[in-house]
Amino acid sequence: MENSYLDMELLRFTTAGSVDDGKSTLIGRLLFDSKSIFEDQLDQVESSSKKRGLQHTDLALLTDGLKDEREQGITIDVAYRYFATPKRKFIIADTPGHIQYTRNMVTGASTANLALILIDARKGLVEQTYRHSFIASLLQIPHIIVCVNKMDLVDYSEDAFEKIKSEYEDFAAKLDVKDIRFIPISALNGDNVVNRSDKMSWFGGSTLLYTLETIHIGSDYNHIDCRFPVQTVIRPKSDKFHDYRGYAGRIAGGVFKKGDEVAILPSGFTSKIKSIDTMDGPIDEAYTPMSVSITLDDDIDISRGDMIVRKNNQPNVSQDIEVMLCWFNKNGPQIRSKYTLMHASNEVKAMVKHIQYKLNINTLHRDESFDAIGMNDIVKLNLRTTKPLLQDSYRKNRSTGSLILIDETTHETVAAGMII
């Protein structure tokens, strides 16, 4: 059992909704009905609910992070929740809905396979719906599940659900998302969250949990373009492994097999894969997102930041890059601002060459005559790096197409970005 549990597929999803759309209640309901919470947590929530004079156990309290936050009744930052069912393991990145937390949503969503977007059945699409959906499409999250919540407050009306669904589909036609599903739910009462609702017999689709357990995520990764950024070189120098020289890291794309001809960048030298090793011993092939150590037939000088790729399928190598950034800091970028840029396993210095425009996330309007850039703004700009980056466009590979910028004096992360 233990081994099969470790081998289970992991789905990462992010949740987004406007304030009070019932996001925390929904996650609480998922955890509660799938039996993924501990008795002591439940006791705590029950006593907390009683203290507030509530008639029912407030499942939202399960997710509202830190204790003092729970007592003040506000949610901030990104909270990660872990739970598992017999079919899959899950990590939830729960981010607040307010506009001033765009950066938190970008952080929480950057590694997600799926975004859960909550819409209040009474209010329909609101500004936040558009913003969260746009960020999901900007970050190339492959799947979106739109949960139309609080169906109990519109008498479980099929018309109310269909109206929101068609409005969302019209808007989503402008976005770049391949797979969108709609589920009518009541998080408070548990309708269609884990258990099927007998109040919405008109809905023929699956419950939320069943959808999360069965949605196909194997092809979310790029298995075509082989990319292996080297994180560290392993030289044990012990008698048993005297000549072992392995290159360790996490596969960012493609499938690597023993005997494959590979090229090492930036040097351009070529060799063949001699072995692929894991914690559990040698394997014949490895693919994203596995962490492995690769040894080669030839003794080539390779260090952290280099990349092992296929001879006839290589990333772009350039010092000039065009990026879409979500700005995290109150001090915005200026022309000639300098930063440390982290990309895959590489660290280089970078300078802002040109700022093209600031994007208004709500209207998708490109503002070329902006005054300043501040926290949570999304901007398109050009960077020049001190040495060439081995990169792909973010659309092609989310690992080799993303980067972060760090302030050289304060060491704060000031932006996260996607290479265009």
Indicate the topology:
Elements: H1 2-7, E1 10-17, H2 23-33, H3 39-51, H4 67-72, E2 79-84, E3 89-94, H5 102-109, E4 114-120, H6 127-138, E5 143-149, H7 158-172, E6 179-184, H8 208-214, E7 227-229, E8 232-234, E9 246-250, E10 255-257, E11 261-265, E12 270-278, E13 281-283, E14 285-287, E15 291-296, E16 307-310, E17 316-327, E18 338-343, E19 346-360, E20 365-367, E21 378-391, E22 402-406, E23 413-419
Parallel strand pairs: 1-3, 1-4, 4-5, 5-6
Antiparallel strand pairs: 2-3, 7-16, 8-9, 9-15, 10-14, 11-12, 11-16, 12-13, 12-15, 17-21, 17-23, 18-19, 18-22, 19-20, 19-21, 22-23
Question: What are its keywords?
Answer:
single chain, Elongation Factor Tu (Ef-tu), domain 3, 420 residues, 8 helices, 6-stranded mixed beta sheet, 8-stranded antiparallel beta sheet, Rossmann fold, alpha+beta, 19% helix
Short description:
The chain has 420 residues and is α+β, with helices and mostly antiparallel strands. The protein contains 8 helices and 23 strands.
Could you characterize the architecture of this molecule?
The chain is an alpha+beta fold. The protein has 3 domains: 219 residues, 3-Layer(aba) Sandwich (Rossmann fold), CATH 3.40.50.300; 84 residues, Translation factors (Elongation Factor Tu (Ef-tu), domain 3); 104 residues, Elongation Factor Tu (Ef-tu), domain 3 (Beta Barrel). The strands form 4 sheets. Strands 7, 8, 9, 11, 12, 13, 15 and 16 form an 8-stranded antiparallel sheet that branches. Strands 2-3-1-4-5-6 form a 6-stranded mixed sheet, sandwiched between helices. The longest helix has 15 residues. It is globular.
